[in-house]
UniProtKB/TrEMBL annotation:
Domain of life, source organism: Eukaryota
One cellular component (GO) term of this entry: nucleus
InterPro entries: HORMA_dom, HORMA_dom_sf, HORMA_MeioticProgression, Znf_FYVE_PHD, Znf_RING/FYVE/PHD
Annotated transmembrane regions: none
Protein name per its UniProtKB record: HORMA domain-containing protein 2-like
Gene that specifies this protein: LOC117653906
GO terms under biological process: meiotic cell cycle
Amino acid sequence: MASGTSFKKCENEQAILLPSPTTREQSGLMIKKLTGVCVSTIAFLRNLFDSENFETRSLCGQNVQILKRSCHRNNGVDCLLKWLKGVFDALDNKYLKTVSLEIRDVTGLLLETYEFHYTFHDDQPLLNIETSKNIHVGGTVWRDSSMEEIRILLRNILVATSAQPILPPNCFTSVRIHYHDGTPEDYEPPGFKPFFGESPDHVHPNRLKLACGQVSTKFHTLNIKTKLAQTIPSSSEPSTPEIRCECGLEDRAGSLLKCETCGTLQHLACYKIFSEENSQSQRTHKCIKCGNSKPPKDFDAVSCLFRRVIALCAKSKSVSIKKLTNELNLNPDSALVHMKKLQREGALQKSIVPICLEKTDFMHTVNKSAIDNFKVKYFN
């Protein structure tokens, strides 16, 4: 998460052109562009990603920050952009009712929600943006109104987010879609999976509701609402959930899941989830001890630790015994065992330097193709 960013002026920024919404297709394109601008603005103002993941563009004479695919690959940015494509697919099919952009802390507590409500009026699209205190700060935006209302809409988002406390470290985002009645039961846009509810105790109890505004055309309505936590516990408070994981370690390296029953935390890789993108289907996660089924055979401590080692290899060019001890809190003997297993299974490129406790600092190059195969072999 970025430590701090600010709006930047760019003399040669490229303008975002909004089509005149005289047809259903033009209106849909306008709503898509406004949705992308608003999501990017929220991500920028809440410092969800580093500033290098944004580019300055111009909309209605106002500079805005737009998410982009960076040459420095960022899985969070790529995932959010992929979700937006799924949102646009549902919009094109006229199934889309609500999109919720959610921000949660490391324990899974829901801190902020930005709701985009879509209405179709006999082939019309509308955009309405709201935040969460029942304070209306927006209005209806018509295409022939010189775009002043769109500038007000973006300004309202700025005002709503600027008053918020700084988000705690290691926050993550997710996107949820609700459909209009009549949507086929088997329909899911690209990048989304079915979701069946939210545990109330995972939602911040003191959230402010604000209405940012609304944009309308002859074909669609987009309405954006937000629910924002007025106070966010600091990471130093003693209410940090306990880590109770099958690997037997209590470190907080990597991403964590929270059991909805006992509230303890588990490592993502230990539960056979390879990345944060795949973790979005685990919002109703239960730990092994709270689950009703018998634990699988490969949930012993050694297997869980090896999956964590694989996850570390996936984001590293090379690894060593010392790297495993430092980043995963393994003892040297355990790190040695896992390094040799990586070597046996072809996950490390051949080297003239042996893997041994006398060479703990030596970095062995990771074989990325083998790690990709491990995703299928060792993870869901």
